[in-house]
Write a structure and sequence with these properties.
Helix 1 packs across helix 3. 10% of the residues are buried. This protein has two domains: 1-63, Multidrug-efflux Transporter Regulator, Chain: A, Domain 2 (Orthogonal Bundle); 74-135. It is built from six helices and no strands. By secondary structure, it is mainly α. The model has no long low-confidence stretch (mean pLDDT 88).
Length: 135
Amino acid sequence: MSQKNLTIAGVARSAGVSVETIRFYQRKGLVPEPPKPATGIRHYGEDDVARVRFIKSAQHIGFTLEEIAQLLMLTDGAHCTEARVIAEHKLADVRHRMADLQRIETALTELVDRCIASRGKVVCPLIDSLQRDSR
C-alpha cells in the first residue's frame, strides 16, 4: 500500500489524464474514492495512479469500461485464465469489426471508382446506389 499524499489533481497529472477523467472513473466504480477527512481534501496514493494508468492502457487497446472493470478484479495476477478469456472475447470482437470494416471499405471503393468513371454525367453513381439500396 502506498503512502496517500497525492490530491486528485496530482493523480491526474501523474497518470496523464484530467481530474474529470478520475471523477468519471470513480462514478463508474473503477477508481475508489478515498474517504473525505476533516480537512476536506481527499488523499490518493501511487496505487491510484497505477490503477488509472492500467485503465488508460486497457482503453488504448480497445477494452470497454465494463471489460476493464472485469480485468481490475483480476489484477492480483493469479487469474491469468480468466483474463485470457476476456482478451479472447475482445480479439474475436475486433476481428469481427475488422471484417465489417473491410466490407465497408470494399463497397465504398467500388462506389468512389464508379463516381470517378462517370465524371460529368448527370446521375452520381454513389447517390444513385444509396437511393436504390434504401428502397
